């Protein structure tokens, strides 16, 4: 889709008013304090330029914000969560045709560890109370960290703290402006849902579909349904994914959001469509990738790095700031935008081959008809291999010099790959030309895109080289579909004293 919006500007202060809310947060009929609408002058200060409508004939009648993995109790996370509300309400207030935020949903890991920090839920609740406006239905659910966690003896503690501070119900079905939202909480760390939970889920889906079979049904849980979006492999998926998938597959109008994997919300594979639609909600604590992906398995313990440093759950992640704005119009067409919590700007597509200002917008024009779904795994069938531009060279930027003057490693430099979907990672191989087997090494380095930016030049460090030995180094580009391109190859001798 061509650019449908101009960038929202960066100043987002003074947009939200505080309000009281019910103990359950999400009761549409809860009696709340009257809230004055945002001041027009404040909005002019907050945004220097009004956003255009996403499409000339698309006028929202419903709007929802979705994020995941806040982890209150970790440094800086409360501020991020507060910022999320302000950005969301500022976005809505700046829209010409529809100013409401009908629902806000957090798909679990509200806290880092309520067992070790019992005031986490109270802190979380306070942020919601200060920011939530009366018009907005609020919905959350329990993730693995909210129970926490390592031992089953702690599950009950986290659950009781949640009930004390948030509400007794942990699985909830609410409506917001006529749209159904269904949230399923973790019963334990691995999302092994009980029989009663699955039966409840199926009954609630039936109720929503009967109410209006043409409307999307929005569903939420913490862990992913296996083999759907990027990051839905291994333990990132619910251990009861089969039961979830069977429930959702009964209704193609299901649009499901999850978290847990801390996968990039800016990835084209952060949306998946098959018998239903699934999306990454957008993590706030950190962002990373797994060794295990159904299109490109790296092997046990292979590890993925970015610029030579570990790239996983522990990293702060440059782009752990994106979340979803979901809008539906009167024809039940769905638009999903990915917004930067810090700046209010919309994420751009990670393709290196389109206009750099093209915004990442997912469109579902008929949620009831899977034959119209465009974000399926069939995208891989037509995907082309990534490539380095003509004339690209693999260069040695600098040597790793030991105290005795020998070289046992080096920093490589090469241009960023080109790919129509999204640069993913580089497979780096180096082996001695004398054929000594233990000198064969393989590493994987994420493209800078997964750190939040497209850059013209990549640098990677390699090591475990024998001084004085000639090596052949190969750097192979790999895209999100696991398709490899032609490598850059260079022969070099590790200097010796």
Q: How do the strands line up in the largest sheet? A: 3-2-1-12-13-14
What is the level 1 CATH name of the largest domain? Alpha Beta
CATH-defined topology of the largest domain: Purple Acid Phosphatase, chain A, domain 2
Name of the CATH superfamily of the largest domain: Metallo-dependent phosphatases
CATH architecture of the largest domain: 4-Layer Sandwich
Structural class: alpha+beta
**Range of helix content:** 10-25%
Oligomer: single chain
How many H/I helices? Answer: 7
DSSP strand count: 21
Strand content: 15-25%
Q: Termini separation (Å)?
A: 58 Å
Mean pLDDT: 83
Number of domains: 2
| Coarse shape | globular
Alpha carbon gyration radius: 24 Å
Order of helices and strands: HEHEHEHEEHEHEEEEEEEEHEEEEEEE
Largest sheet: 6 strands, mixed
Regions with little confidence, pLDDT below 50 for 5+ residues: 1-54, 311-317
């Amino acid at each position: 889709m061509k650019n449908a919006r101009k960038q929202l500007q960066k100043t987002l202060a003074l947009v939200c008013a505080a309000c009281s809310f019910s103990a359950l947060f999400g009761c549409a009929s809860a009696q709340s304090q009257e809230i004055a609408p945002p001041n027009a002058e404040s909005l002019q200060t907050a945004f220097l330029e009004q956003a255009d409508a996403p499409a000339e004939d698309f006028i929202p009648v419903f709007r929802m914000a979705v994020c995941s993995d806040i982890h209150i109790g970790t440094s800086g996370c409360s501020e991020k969560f507060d910022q999320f509300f302000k950005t969301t309400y500022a976005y809505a207030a700046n829209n010409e045709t529809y100013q409401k935020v009908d629902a806000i949903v957090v798909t679990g890991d509200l806290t880092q560890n309520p067992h070790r920090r019992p005031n986490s839920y109270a802190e979380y609740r306070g942020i919601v109370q200060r920011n939530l406006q009366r018009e907005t239905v609020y919905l959350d659910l329990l993730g693995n960290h909210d129970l926490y966690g390592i031992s089953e003896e702690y599950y009950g503690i986290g659950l009781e703290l949640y009930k004390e501070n948030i509400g007794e119900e942990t699985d909830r079905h609410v409506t917001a402006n006529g749209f159904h939202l269904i949230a399923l909480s973790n019963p334990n760390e691995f999302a092994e849902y009980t029989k009663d939970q699955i039966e409840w889920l199926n009954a609630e889906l039936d109720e929503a579909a009967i109410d209006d079979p043409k409307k999307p049904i929005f569903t939420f849980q913490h862990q992913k349904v296996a083999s759907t979006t990027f990051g839905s492999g291994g333990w990132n998926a619910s251990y009861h994914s089969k039961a979830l998938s069977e429930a959702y597959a009964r209704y193609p109008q299901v649009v499901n959001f999850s978290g847990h994997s801390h996968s990039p919300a800016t990835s084209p594979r952060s949306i998946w469509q098959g018998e239903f639609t699934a999306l990454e909600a957008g993590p706030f604590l950190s962002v990373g990738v797994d060794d295990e992906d159904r299109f490109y398995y790296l092997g046990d313990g292979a590890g993925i790095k970015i610029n030579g440093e570990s790239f996983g759950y522990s990293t702060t992640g440059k782009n752990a700031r994106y979340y979803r704005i979901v809008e539906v119009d009167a024809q039940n067409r769905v638009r999903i935008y990915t917004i930067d919590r810090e700046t209010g700007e919309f994420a751009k597509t990670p393709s290196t081959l389109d206009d750099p200002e093209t915004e990442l917008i997912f469109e579902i024009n008929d949620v009831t008809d899977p034959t119209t779904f465009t974000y399926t795994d069939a995208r891989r069938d037509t995907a082309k291999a990534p490539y380095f531009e003509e004339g690209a060279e693999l260069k040695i930027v600098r040597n790793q010099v030991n105290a005795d003057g020998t070289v046992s490693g080096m920093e490589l430099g090469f241009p960023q790959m080109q790919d129509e979907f999204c640069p993913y990672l580089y497979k780096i191989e180096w082996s001695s030309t004398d054929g000594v087997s233990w000198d064969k090494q393989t590493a994987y380095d994420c493209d800078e895109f997964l750190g939040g930016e497209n850059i013209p030049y990549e640098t990677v460090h390699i090591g475990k080289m024998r001084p004085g030995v000639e090596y052949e180094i190969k750097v192979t580009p790999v895209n999100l579909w696991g398709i490899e391109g032609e490598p850059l190859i260079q022969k070099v001798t590790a200097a010796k004293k």
